[in-house]
Write a structure and sequence with these properties.
Pfam families: HTH_3. This is Helix-turn-helix transcriptional regulator. By secondary structure, the protein is mainly α. The chain has a single domain, classed as Orthogonal Bundle (434 Repressor (Amino-terminal Domain)). The chain is built from five helices and two strands. It has a two-stranded antiparallel ribbon. Helix 2 packs across helix 3 (about 25-35). The two termini are about 20 Å apart.
């Protein structure tokens, strides 16, 4: 899943550790999210969206599953 978290965070002049403290996660979690190495739980995605006053879809871009969207 791609995301715009780094872009949005930088526009707000926030450091990774500052955002991590606000969201009550580690800085490594923020880094992994931004690098696409980690997909957030639905709770964390909602926390991020609420903090930035955006929808989840504005931040996280779902690209379908690995089977081309066939569901099997």
């Amino acid at each position: 899943m791609k995301n715009r978290l780094e872009e949005i965070r930088k526009k707000r002049a926030l450091k990774q550790d500052e955002l991590a403290e606000i969201l009550q996660v580690s800085r490594q979690t923020i880094s992994s999210l931004e690098n696409g190495k980690y997909n957030p739980s639905i709770q964390l995605a909602f926390k991020i969206a609420c903090y930035f006053k955006m929808s989840i879809e504005e931040i996280f871009i779902y690209e379908g599953d690995e089977n081309g969207g066939k569901g099997e």
